[in-house]
């Protein structure tokens, strides 16, 4: 069975468009789409993420304990093939990005085993990237 995933659109706040361009375009290597002085469309692996320049506040931030780590909430990200996950982790390390949670295997030996890593963009938005050796385990119980 082929899984068809619709594209998603996500708009996030950033306080500096130049720093957003350096991070999303430079560090993550995402292609830039339409833009203005106040926003930029990014091709987030076929999905549309838009960085909008607004005053950034941390009022709604929190964390939740998962597998012995404090997972930042809210966050967004992608599920990548394992080879892409590890290539991105290397690219982030090479760029000197500080991880909130370093790349590691979560739920090792359990249903839903996955590689995961968390980081923040320059405006403080939390991102998670993960990879499953067996993507059918995405919603494992």
UniProtKB/TrEMBL annotation:
InterPro entries listed in its UniProt record: Glyas_Bleomycin-R_OHBP_Dase (IPR029068), Glyas_Fos-R_dOase_dom (IPR004360), VOC_core (IPR037523)
A Pfam family matched in the record: Glyoxalase
Residue ranges of every copy of the VOC domain listed in the record: 6-132
Domain of life the protein comes from: Bacteria
PANTHER family: PTHR39434, VOC DOMAIN-CONTAINING PROTEIN
UniProt protein name: Glyoxalase
Source organism: Actinoallomurus iriomotensis
């Amino acid at each position: 069975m082929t899984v068809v995933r619709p594209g998603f659109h996500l708009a996030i706040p950033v306080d500096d468009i130049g720093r957003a361009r350096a991070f999303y375009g430079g560090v993550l290597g995402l292609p830039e789409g339409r833009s203005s002085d106040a926003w930029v469309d990014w091709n987030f692996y076929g999905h549309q993420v838009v960085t909008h320049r607004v005053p950034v506040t941390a009022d709604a931030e929190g964390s939740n304990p998962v597998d012995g780590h404090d997972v930042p909430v809210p966050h967004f990200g992608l599920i990548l093939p394992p080879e892409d996950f590890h290539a991105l982790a290397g690219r982030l390390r090479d760029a000197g990005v500080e991880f909130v949670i370093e790349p590691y295997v979560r739920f090792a030996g359990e249903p839903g085993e996955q590689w995961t890593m968390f980081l923040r963009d320059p405006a403080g938005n939390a991102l998670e990237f993960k990879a499953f050796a067996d993507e059918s385990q995405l919603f494992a119980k």
